[in-house]
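[#protein-structures] MJ: dropping Transposase here for a structure pass
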Amino acid sequence: MNANQLFLWRKLYQDGSLSAVSADEAVVPASELSDALKQIRELQRMRGKKTMEAEILKGAVEIARARKWIAHSPLLPGDDQ
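AK: finished. structure tokens for Transposase:
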């Protein structure tokens, strides 16, 4: 065993690099973590876009009802009246 290897392991241990192993948690490669974070960002972006679309459509329905372009339909979400 080389002394440099021992010093490297000691430094990693002191820096907390081995904490996941000692905590019995799964260690994930950095590439998998990066891919997962990219996917999370993309899903958050898509969710934001869909939320904005839903708000726009709700506004359009309210305007159309106010102008009597469409009849009040209990089939639309949020219409419990």
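MJ: nice. The two ends are 78 Å apart (CA to CA).
AK: one more thing. The mean pLDDT is 82.
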